[in-house]
Amino acid sequence: MRKGIAFVAFALALAAASGTAVAAPRRAVLLRGADAVKGLPFFAPNAIAALSGLYTLEKPAAADASDSGAGAAPGKAAPGPAAQVAVWYSRESIVFAPTWKRADSRGVGAYADAAYSLERGEGTVLALKSEGYTLFFEMTGDPRATDFARAFSGKFPIFFRNAASDAELSFPAFVDY
Q1: Comparing C-alpha atoms, which of 143, 109, 118 is closest to residue 43?
Q2: CA dist., res. 52 & res. 137, Å (int)
Q3: Where in the chain are the domains?
Q4: Global pTM exceeds 0.85
Q5: DSSP codes, 70-106
Q6: Which end of the chain has a smaller Cβ tally under 10 Å, C or N?
């Protein structure tokens, strides 16, 4: 952990010394959850015990000027439109039917043992199966959602390991991605 912090500090110092601007991280904020639910909506009717939540994904205030609103102050870009990502967690053993496609675990599933995706309506459900639980992310085509899923799946194990039961488990209030 200390090596990681030292590396980030070194990278920031190097960027500052070279005059390169460092992009501010984007932040996802928990709007609601973790709510206990029975049944996951992307499987046939079921009673799978799960927790659900909803995050809003916002661009940083220093977003690209081309995304700025008409009323933005000169020299300052307005935040881009918010996207939302629904998140589910389940401790139950999940079997994925052939309709779920195996996803590249080196990308979004870097923190998972296996990754699956399912096309649903106008979006995609991403499933990241780890030891002891599975995370699900319902996303539209917004590329920020994939970055959020990667960051969330890296942060969630700490919450999982520190909760003796689902009643004590929570989702992170915010996730920088």
Answers
A1: 118
A2: 10
A3: 23-176
A4: no
A5: TTPPTT-PPPPPPEEEEEEEE-S-----TTSEEP-TT
A6: N
Tokens of 19: 């005059």
Cβ contact 110:146 at 8 Å? no
Per-residue pLDDT of 61-115, as tens digits, reads: 554 444 444 444 444 444 556 789 999 999 999 999 999 999 876 666 667 889 9
DSSP helix/strand/coil, 9? helix
In DSSP terms, 7 is beta-bridged to none
Q: Return the CA Rg of the chain.
A: 18
Farthest CA pair distance, the chain? 57
Distance CA 90, CA 133 (A): 6
CA distance 50 to 87: 10
Both tokens of 132, joined, read 């002891």
Nearest 5°: the CA angle 146, 177, 132 is 65
Cα 42–152–172 angle (5° rounding)? 100
